[in-house]
Amino acid sequence: MFIQRPFSRASKASKTDTDKKGRACLCLSKWYMTMVFNSRKIKSALCLLAVIAVLLTSCGKGGKKDNTLRIAAGEITGNFNPFYAVSEGDKAVNSQVFRTIQRTGKNNKLINSVGSISYEYSGDSKTKYTVTIRDDLKFSDGRGVTIDDVIFFYYFCADASYDGVYSDFYLNDIEGIKEYYYDDTAWKSKLAEFEDKADKEKQIKKYIEKNYKDGADVTEIKGIRRVDDYTCTVTFNSRNINAVSALNAVIVSKAFYTAEYVKGSASVIKNFTTMSMGCGPYFVSNYNADSHKTELKYNTGYSGDTPDFTRLEYIDISGSKTDATDYILKGKADIIETTASAAAVNKLNGSSAKYFITNDNSYTSLFINTRTVENDAVRKQLMKACSDYTYLDKTYGSYYTKVYMPLSVRFEEYPAASNPYYSGDTISALLTKEVSKINIYCISGEYSEEKILADNMAEKLNSLGIKAKVVLSDYAKLTKDAAAGKADMWILNVPDGATCDKYDYYHSGGRFNLTGLSDAAIDTLTERIRSSTGFTEKKGMTVGLLNAIMEKAIEMPVYQKQIITAYSTETISPGSIDSVSDYDGYAYAITELKAAE
């Protein structure tokens, strides 16, 4: 059974044409040098130089002029390390420097990009994935990409000394990955010794540090096998609908990042910040630490056609008081993605700029802590009290989506819910009898939509006689305070995964289960959905799961923002931006944009 057709390894014809041009230019250069040094007539040589300079200029790949595209972005910190970059601007830059095996399409589906991931079932429970990359990929230093670069990504993410954005990779049920992560083949029995200890996590950390200190004992992950230069297989002990997303590696250069790295020394790779090496269409040519402005140049080894925009300039607008769309209207940037609103649309209408609107790939929910509000009925009453959020209409107009069940509308498994779940009944006396005060946590900034929403909910609870307080926090503090019973409710942005799987949020052992929910029936449902194979079966179980979650009243989705992409028609040809229709955002389509005439 296959989820994607593997890429053909045949290189593109245009690549061959390009190589011919390159060889022709090289021969022309050698001929010119011979003529100059053998010529006795300096004037002739100078004339010849002028002629050849023009010829050489047109010998670049595709022969296109050096057009610059200015992109307004979020905060740029200068960390272009794909393993550690977290800021919006840094990730935007990396989207052009690096490629993943597959990319996300407009409907949240993974689509082949520079490779493919297929699978077949093995026995009653195991699944073998075949990961294939194209054979014509090159890093910006000219080095060819092989499957060893992909395997390095998997191994580095499974290193316990790694603490970056993919540090939970070891949780995937890949054969032998836990042995590699803990550096001990007897890890199960060892972890069992810490199970009842109050400082369990601290003990596990010491156990890992001790194992790594004397060098690596487990140097291979059993389930990852190299097949050839462009193929590897990865065997899972179970069936998991998230596996394809987990294996969708960022293509990084093993040679570039591992000069001093060995297992257990992830910090040496963490030090790579402004330096990076990818096989994407561009590479970082300059970063200004004062202005945070970042310049990218075209990677001439890129496997695709030469883009019209051979230079990119990312502009950090995170600290600016200027409205985001004004960067386009005032000619300071050529393209921008920002939150859609009635005000933004009104500004753009009537101008020479154009725009299009898409759903954001996340949504915002209200959560309630089962540790502090134990009664399901009381939690339902809290949800009803907080369910009216008409202020959003004033802020966004019609440019947001109301989400009525805790799963983004981008998934096919999402049920057709068109009405609020917690509505209709009046607020009962049970609420004020059981609840006297509420702490509502918000991890966004003082002037964020989430903070405004939290204030709005607090105001309603206070009007009922419940002392409600909004607490500004960060995610780490929220996690700690939720477990300690200090956080009663919180507003949180929930990112889309690559599938409808909500195991991590609702299973009693889920890593994002901050509400403390523990329900045997829900545990079973999340486990079955994660290992399901048929779409119809999966959709039915998903509807059942979401209804069960709403009855438990631990999460109430509020809204899904919409994103407006605005661009200058003086720089970008409007016809070419239609190419983004197959993409999740315009980032992957930059190479397809055409410069305005």
Structural description of this entry:
The protein is α+β, with helices and mostly antiparallel strands. The protein folds into four domains: 13-63; 68-73 and 280-334 and 569-592, no CATH class; 100-270, Dipeptide-binding Protein, Domain 1 (Dipeptide-binding Protein, domain 1); 362-562, Dipeptide-binding Protein, Domain 3 (Dipeptide-binding Protein, domain 3), CATH 3.10.105. 32% of the residues lie in helices and 19% in strands. The chain has 20 helices and 18 strands. The strands form three sheets. Strands 1, 8, 9, 10, 11, 12, 13, 14, 15, 16, 17 and 18 form a twelve-stranded mixed sheet that branches. A four-stranded antiparallel sheet has the order 4-5-7-6, with helices on one face. The longest helix is centred in the N-terminal third of the chain and has 26 residues, at 13-38. Mean pLDDT is 85; it is low at 1-63.
Give keywords.
597 residues, four-stranded antiparallel sheet, Dipeptide-binding Protein, domain 1, 4 domains, alpha+beta, disordered N terminus, 18 strands, globular
Q: Tally the helices: what do you get?
A: 20
Indicate the overall shape.
Answer: globular
Which parts are unreliable, with pLDDT below 50 for 5 consecutive residues or more? 1-63
Task: Fill in the CATH topology of the largest domain.
Answer: Dipeptide-binding Protein, domain 3
Oligomeric state: single chain
Q: What top-tier CATH class of the largest domain fits best?
A: Alpha Beta
Please name the fourth-level CATH homologous superfamily of the largest domain: Dipeptide-binding Protein, Domain 3
Rounded Rg: 27 Å
Helicity level:
25-40%
Q: How many distinct beta strands?
A: 18
